[in-house]
Design brief:
The complex is a heterodimer of chains A (215) and B (222).
Chain A lengths: L1 H41 L2 H16 L2 H11 L9 H26 L3 H9 L4 H31 L11 H12 L2 H30 L5
Helix pairs in contact in A: 1-2, 1-4, 1-6, 1-7, 2-4, 3-4, 4-6, 5-6, 6-8, 7-8
Chain B lengths: L7 H5 L1 H33 L4 H16 L2 H16 L5 H26 L3 H9 L4 H31 L11 H12 L2 H30 L5
Helix pairs in contact in B: 2-5, 2-7, 2-8, 3-5, 4-5, 5-7, 6-7, 7-9, 8-9
The chains are: A mainly alpha (215), B mainly alpha (222).
Chain lengths: 215, 222
């Protein structure tokens, strides 16, 4: 019990890194994923196909393989970044593919009549997206998107394997000093659980909130 | 900097990758089998169970689903033996972890599957005089199996990818073989450009096979 309390300040530093990694990845994957998802759904074939291939390749790989590949191979291409950014790059690439699929699902649930109506009153593609499609697709987008946020927080634990001192590695380091694995792992699990369960609850609440809409 | 690709190093140790892939698949198969038993048992139990039972099952599901798998892997391998006063080897520990993990996801899958069984089928079973146990065995389970098959195959593919985490316990699966070759030859590009396609192709082949199976068992076809 003492171990758990004494290690809290150190774990706090790790938690901040975990949250930082997650936040950067969530924002990057959000922007990139929505763009890819729209390209996948409405782009001409030469846009949609490369995105389809990108998404299937990335989602077909274990996240760990992706992180290690980027971490070891990025420097060989002449790009020298810290392990922090290499890991973020890999996570963002992985999550953006998932967000793209979520976006595709949400956007394609909008009946074609809506697009036609938008065209008929002279809206440009961008206007149709922003004023017609996105507001209606939002309820189909939010709950699964929050699930990708949960999986981002979980996936961020893997960055500890390339030496970034996030919550996971902070826990490992405390155990390395105190030789008390069980209390530390339980504490770590509770911290991750608190973050992710809160997010899951939001996702579930939104799902229930949007359930009134009937097709 | 010039980098000369040389795949000889990878072919030289190709057996490590081959056996690694076999072990990865074994881990995934065993875990989903045990996970199915856990998931199915808990899903059937939580059907019409009392609140405390449902609460415990719900806790298990929520806990496992909201904690990173890596942490669970460490917890089972380093944490539990430290208080239990016993030890198991890394492979056993990883199989236990992955089974518990799979079980938590499959409870939800099976529960949804059980709920999706048309009421009329169960009533029909009752009408021809099947006992409750017989109704579960001959009516609910076969129907549910067909409903959940797509979710099961997705879970299997994703478990196959999750076996890569076993490398942190030095279980000699595919990822560990890749890291071994890398640390011994430093041919990093060659290793990853071989291992990534192995994961991809295996995943797609599995997916293709399972989709065929799904079509074979799809509801409404005789």
């Amino acid at each position: 019990m003492n171990v758990m309390i004494n290690s809290l300040p150190f774990l706090w530093q790790g938690l901040l890194v975990t949250l930082q990694v997650s936040a950067i990845v969530v924002v990057a994957a959000f922007v990139l994923g929505i763009s890819l998802g729209v390209g996948l759904s409405f782009g001409p074939r030469w846009v949609a196909w490369p995105i389809r291939i990108y998404s299937d390749l990335i989602r077909g790989l274990p996240l760990l393989v992706l992180i290690f590949s980027v971490y070891y191979m990025l420097p060989l291409t002449g790009v020298n970044v810290t392990s922090f950014w290499a890991a973020i790059f890999a996570l963002a690439a992985f999550q953006s593919a998932h967000v793209a699929e979520v976006t595709r699902g949400a956007v394609q649930s909008i009946p074609p009549g809506q697009h036609e109506a938008g065209k008929a009153i002279g809206l440009t593609f961008g206007q149709r997206m922003i004023y017609v499609v996105f507001p209606q697709a939002l309820r189909r987008f939010l709950p699964p998107w929050i699930n990708t946020v949960v999986s981002t927080v979980q996936g961020s634990a893997l960055v500890s394997l390339v030496g970034i001192v996030d919550l996971m590695l902070a826990i490992q380091q405390v155990i390395g000093r105190t030789f008390k694995p069980m209390p530390m792992y339980i504490l770590g699990a509770l911290i991750y659980f608190a973050i992710n369960y809160a997010l899951s609850l939001i996702s579930r609440t939104l799902e229930a909130r949007f359930a009134y809409v009937r097709e | 900097m010039q980098y000369h690709l040389n795949y000889n190093f990878v072919w030289k140790y190709a057996d490590r990758l081959a056996w690694g892939l076999v072990l990865s698949l074994e881990l995934a198969v065993i875990s989903i089998a045990i996970g199915c038993v856990i998931g199915l048992t808990l899903a059937v139990l939580s059907q019409g169970a009392r609140r405390p039972v449902r609460f415990v099952i719900g806790m298990y599901v929520e806990f496992v689903r909201n904690v990173p798998l890596l942490l669970l892997v460490y917890l089972v391998f380093y944490g539990i033996p430290s208080i239990g006063g016993f030890a198991y080897d890394a492979t056993t520990s990883f199989v236990i972890t992955l089974s518990i993990y799979a079980g938590a996801y499959l409870v939800e899958v099976f529960r949804a599957g059980l709920e999706a069984i048309p009421k009329g089928l169960i009533d029909a079973g009752r009408a021809i005089g099947l006992t409750p146990v017989q109704r579960v065995l001959y009516v609910q389970l076969p129907t549910m199996f067909r409903i959940v098959l797509p979710s099961l195959s997705n879970a299997f593919i994703s478990l196959f990818k999750d076996t890569s985490l076993a490398t942190v316990l030095a279980v000699p699966e595919l990822m560990f073989g890749a890291n071994w070759i890398y640390t011994n030859t430093f041919r990093i590009v060659e290793v990853w450009t071989v291992v990534a396609p192995i994961y991809l192709v295996t995943g797609f082949v599995l997916l293709g096979g399972l989709r065929l199976l799904e079509r074979r068992f799809a509801i409404g076809r005789r």
